[in-house]
Amino acid sequence: IDRNNLLQYITPMDLKAFGLIPEIIGRLPILTYLEPLDRDALLRILTEPKNSIIKQYEKLFSMDGVTLTLDKDVYEYIVDKAIEFKLGARGLRSIVEAIMIDAMFSLPSEDK
Domains in the chain, start-ordered, CATH in brackets? Predict the structure, then answer.
């Protein structure tokens, strides 16, 4: 038994003991456990997909005539914060949003 990942051994009886009602447990035909994403996976999710978060922001800024260029250190900072706060891939967007919010509203209105 891997004591570091006990969730991988969860059973419907465990859910019942936890307090879930049988009607809800019956609607969960398969129980599974997912390993947390590592740094490399989060970094790839942040940058590689066709519609990655970073590419979306680059497009948003380009619509206002602003070229968005981020250093690799920024990507690593975003990933580190997602890991620190245990946010996973979904948390990447909120971290990027928090970083970009001021620039999104101030840069387009500045004189070029």
Answer: 1-35 (no CATH), 39-109 (1.10.8.60)
Spell 62-91 as b/e; 16+ CB within 10 A means b.
Answer: eeeebebebeeeebeebbebbbeeeeeeeb
pLDDT at 2 over 90: no
Q: In which band, very low, low, confident or very high, does the pLDDT at 19 lie, cut at 50, 70 and 90?
A: very high
Going by the DSSP 8-state scheme, the letter that residue 20 receives in this structure is: -
pTM listed for this prediction? 0.77
Separation CA 103–CA 112 (nearest Å):
14
Contacts of 73 (CB under 8 A, 6+ apart): none
91's tokens: 């948390």
Q: Which residues contact 57 (CB under 8 A, 6 or more apart)?
A: 68, 96, 100
